[in-house]
């Protein structure tokens, strides 16, 4: 006589596996979102720190030159952003791709980064300051 699983046993196993996988998938998504948020926070701090460092250096050297963050083109993939202030420039993406955690150059003095598929932060480089132009609550979450 052959031994096999009954239909009820198979259904129970499938239900248990689906319940366990739903918890795992939600935890993985939370982990990914958390890592993107940490990455964005550190990159914002790094950019601001390097702008302040360059500004101080210009003051000490009595150099009146304006700070230019990069020479990258607007909305072009794989451009080197912030190359004039960072030792290791950040690689850009495009608005169409909406890759979380990747920067986009919107104009000569405006940048954007997607934190989630539907959420983004916008920054402007005005008067040697890197200023968040998104909603106050969103800016506060990432600063």
- In total, how many domains does the architecture comprise? 1
Mean pLDDT: 90
What characterizes the major β-sheet? 4 strands, antiparallel
| Low-confidence blocks of residues | none
The total count of strands amounts to: 6
Shape: elongated
* Series of secondary-structure elements, N-terminal to C-terminal: HEEEEEEH
Q: What is the percentage of strand-forming residues? A: 15-25%
Gyration radius from CA atoms, angstroms: 23 Å
For the biggest β-sheet, the strand order reads 3-4-5-6
How far the N terminus sits from the C terminus, by CA atoms, comes to 68 Å
> Helical stretch count?
2
User: What share of the residues lie within helices?
Assistant: 40-55%
Structural class assignment: alpha+beta
Helix-strand layout with pairing:
Elements: H1 7-60, E1 80-81, E2 90-91, E3 103-107, E4 110-116, E5 119-126, E6 129-132, H2 136-142
Antiparallel strand pairs: 1-2, 3-4, 4-5, 5-6
Nutshell version of this structure?
The chain has one domain.
Structure description:
By secondary structure, this protein is an alpha+beta fold. It has one domain. It has helices at residues 7-60, 136-142; strands spanning 80-81, 90-91, 103-107, 110-116, 119-126, 129-132. The strands form two sheets. A four-stranded antiparallel beta sheet has the order 3-4-5-6. The protein has a two-stranded antiparallel sheet with strand order 1-2. The longest helix has 54 residues, at 7-60. The N and C termini lie far apart (68 Å). The model has no long low-confidence stretch (mean pLDDT 90).
């Amino acid at each position: 006589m052959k031994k096999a699983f009954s239909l009820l046993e198979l259904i129970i196993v499938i239900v248990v596996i689906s319940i366990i996988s739903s918890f795992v998938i939600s935890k993985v998504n939370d982990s990914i979102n958390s890592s993107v948020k940490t990455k964005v926070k550190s990159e914002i701090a790094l950019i601001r720190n390097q702008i302040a460092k360059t500004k101080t250096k210009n003051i000490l050297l009595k150099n009146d030159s304006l700070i230019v963050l990069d020479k990258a083109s607007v909305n072009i993939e794989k451009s080197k952003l912030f190359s004039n202030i960072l030792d290791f420039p950040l690689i850009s993406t495009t608005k169409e791709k909406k890759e979380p955690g990747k920067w986009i150059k919107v104009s000569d003095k405006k940048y954007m980064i997607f934190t989630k598929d539907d959420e983004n932060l916008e920054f402007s480089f005005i008067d040697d300051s890197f200023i968040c132009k998104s909603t106050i609550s969103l800016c506060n979450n990432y600063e």
